[in-house]
Amino acid sequence: MVAYNRSQNNETFSQQVYMDKGKYYTFSAWVRVSEGSETTVSAVITTPGNSMRVIASGNAYPGCWTMLKGGFQPEFSLLTDLHFLCYNKTVEFWVDNVSLKEFNQTEWRVHQQRAIRRVRQRKILLQITDKLARPIRGVKVNIKFRKPVFHVGCGVTDTFVKYKKYQEWFLEKGFTASVFTNQMKWYWTESRQGIENYTIPDAMFQFFKDHGIAIRGHNVLWDKPNMNQLWLHAMTPKELLATAVRRLASVMARYFNDIFEWDVVNENLHFHFFEDKIGPQASGMFYHIAHVIDPNATLYLNEFNTLEIPGDIYASPHKYIKKFRDIRSYPGNENLTIGFGLQAHFPSGKPNMPYIRAVFDFLSETKMPIWLTEMDVQNTTNQAVYLEEIMREAFAHPGVEGMIVWAPWKPGANCTGLCLTDDNFKNTRAGDVVDKLMAEWKTPELNGKTNSKGLYKYYGFLGDYTVTLYDPYSLKQIIREIKITNKDQNPVLIPISI
After folding, report:
1. Which PANTHER family match (predicted)?
2. pLDDT in tens, 108-123
3. Tens digits of per-residue pLDDT, 202-240?
4. I need a surface site. Which of 63, 82, 85, 110 has the fewest CB within 10 A?
């Protein structure tokens, strides 16, 4: 279909549809404009009161078709118009292959469960033989799951170094990753020009390193103007560039090879402090320097509203991939791995699960890693329910590699955000959800014996295992550490000679 002679953004085309409460509706369409440059377009539905809800946003281009992808889950049944907005009124707007598919809650959950089994679990075969490669029957096998490949972590604040019970609580939960909510940020480590203080982040860092907890580096630079110290604003472009490079070297070299992911330039879709001061390629240059300083770390973008708000046209998946490509176009960055950090700060109201899945699908087409980096849900009656839905959706998607629950604890704080514990370190309802899912996503302890072919078979989650074998004939006990990380779906054969 083609809309032409347009005088308003909403002069395109529409289709009336009926949506059932609680159903999941996935949406896609191919869009294009007749001329000019890229144009922002949105798919929207009208709700009672003639208000609009955006269900997908992206960019349309002349000369090629682009997929628009999203969805909606109505909280009440409604008759609505599905229509498009094209924000350039001077061009023809084209659309083709519009799809709106309906799923009930059972179908949605079954898809998740199948995806989890396909993406996160493998059939594992232990092949036990003697020194002459002959299979041994009847060997007793004990399998203990030690550490998952998929990270579930929790953000912490500076109170972490002051309260031993806070540290004990973190370790007892079994989190495999953490991030400092503020303590590694530039305004924390160098509030006064030229005077750096890493005392608190050093102490936090050392604790997690000593306990084998992966640490995300959040963040090196921040493109939001009011999150930069006043003395940075007064600098000339040349001075700011030199100072920013010094900051990169200071924090990244300090924790070299021990931070596994860095948010190099935070929120550079919504904001552009460094680009305005230094030039449009500032982010690309900073990612290049960051890779030189710490080549073993994965470098991330980190943005809000890409996952949470379909109507934020500044952070749509299309815009995010465009920023990713812009950074990789900087000389030397052509093959750089740049991950997509989705902050996942969900506002009040039900999260749009079909849209969340669409964002994961869209970003994963780049083959770059995806993390939920600051995940929280507003403290409402359904907070725990919504948190579980989001976590399950992320865990089921092959493109997502981990998530950080943004739930730092401070004593005496009135919890208005996401809190997993009270001041006595007793679970909230949200804490119960996180415990339940982390337990569900671990292989339980297993015991058995090898068969006549010397095989012991089981399904297990990807991760690290301790395998203890006891041969009743030779009276040998063997302990092996194994790691299952295979991304392909074939059974994993682990030969062990005793």
Report:
1. ENDO-1,4-BETA-XYLANASE A-LIKE (PTHR31490:SF49), GLYCOSYL HYDROLASE (PTHR31490)
2. 999 999 999 999 999 9
3. 999 999 999 999 999 999 999 999 999 999 999 999 999
4. 63
